[in-house]
TrEMBL record:
This is Pectate lyase domain-containing protein. Belongs to the polysaccharide lyase 1 family. It comes from Botrytis elliptica. One of its GO terms (cellular component) is extracellular region. One of its GO terms (molecular function) is pectate lyase activity. InterPro entries: Pec_lyase, Pectin_lyas_fold, Pectin_lyase_fold/virulence, PEL.
Length: 359
């Protein structure tokens, strides 16, 4: 079923739902090819919460600069709020947290889910703190030490679109040894706190979309809301959409969601200790996803104050949704979207999620 929801805001009640036939696998493959062909370094957000509050266009309309060193990259993204498109060419390595200023697009030059090829940031944490209107797209991010924050950390920010990124920490880490085949290499010499999160959204950030990304081989993947004790700041904020993502070999937080409003759809979760965790009054709508080898695919875990989830058309892999039913429904969202149908998710997402755009 393809579902479209139109409204003018979260508080608006006059909304409607229309249905159309579920796309076939062939439709999904054709659409992936069309997306790659249409992609541009000046694309703006067209899905999820990042389309709200005036939209998210990053550096579109500003100058374009190509960077290939850490010094060039830092100077281009940090020093001002001027609209700019920063094109990453080649692999840039370091051990540093780099603040990303407002009105910036950071985009990889070519598409290849391999750190042996193009567009990789190794050891560099992207810190989107108190910034507005930021796009990060078609980038590989790997091995960011906890001292340098998350691979992508979004704090007190508004209007952020993370799209077609490929994030992991230690390559091919074995998170839960009994889940993975013997030919997958292991790195358990470092504990779960050696690295921090992959894509975290905290401190009342709003209007965030994380889409078409390959998120894998890590203990703690994506935290939405950083503390049970932060209700005063976070309540009424943390509006986050996550869709068409591929999560693989994860310990937890796919995502873990506190306080806010979340929408997770068209995604594939493969091999994780826990899946979507809703806490501290969070309201999440979970649609058209597939979970495989995830024993708690949708649950309310680890907090005294529960969160809530409404779930529709999810393949839970033989396990159960144990989260309390919430109030967020298909008529509660301020944007339109399309569902693949759970039977089409794996074919549509695997191979297209990640830094796959030929820009």
């Amino acid at each position: 079923m393809k579902l479209s929801i139109l409204s003018t805001g979260l508080a608006v009640l006059a909304q409607f739902v229309s249905a159309a036939p579920t796309p076939t696998e062939g439709d999904a493959i054709a659409e992936r090819a069309n997306i790659a062909k249409r992609a541009s370094i000046t694309d703006v957000a067209t899905t999820g919460f990042a389309t709200q509050n005036g939209g998210t266009k990053g550096g579109a309309g500003g100058a374009t600069t190509t960077v290939s060193t850490l010094a060039q990259f830092t100077a281009a993204v940090t020093n001002d709020e001027v609209a700019r498109v920063i094109v990453v060419s080649g692999t840039i390595s370091g051990s540093v947290k780099v603040r990303v200023g407002s009105n910036k697009t950071i985009v990889g030059k070519k598409g290849a889910n391999s750190t042996d090829d193009f567009l990789a940031l190794i050891g560099i944490g992207l810190y989107i703190n108190k910034s507005t209107n930021v796009i990060v797209r078609n980038i590989i991010s790997q091995k960011v030490l906890a001292a340098n924050g998350d691979a992508i950390g979004i704090q007190a920010a508004k209007n952020v679109w993370i799209d077609h990124v490929f994030v992991l920490q230690k390559s091919r880490a074995k998170i839960k040894t009994n889940l993975f085949p013997s030919d997958v290499s292991s790195d358990l010499t470092h504990g779960k706190d050696y690295y921090d999160g992959l894509i975290d959204v905290t401190h009342a950030s709003d209007w965030v979309t994380i889409s078409n990304s390959y998120i894998h081989d890590h203990f703690k993947a994506s935290l939405i809301g950083h503390s049970d004790n932060n209700a005063a700041e976070d309540t009424g904020h943390l509006t986050v959409t996550q869709h068409n993502n591929y999560w693989s070999n994860i310990g937890s937080r796919t995502p873990s969601f506190r306080f806010g409003t979340g929408h997770v759809f068209n995604s594939y979760f493969l091999n994780a200790n826990t899946g979507i965790d809703t806490r501290d009054g969070a309201q999440i709508l979970v649609q058209s996803n597939v979970f495989k080898n995830v024993s708690e695919p949708i649950a309310a875990l680890y907090s005294d104050d529960t969160g809530y989830a409404n779930a529709f058309d999810n393949d839970l892999g033989g396990y159960a949704n144990t989260a309390p039913v919430g109030t967020l429904t298909t008529t509660s969202l301020p944007y339109s979207y399309s569902l693949l149908g759970s039977g089409n998710v794996v074919a549509a997402v695997v191979g297209s999620a990640g830094a796959t755009l030929a820009l």
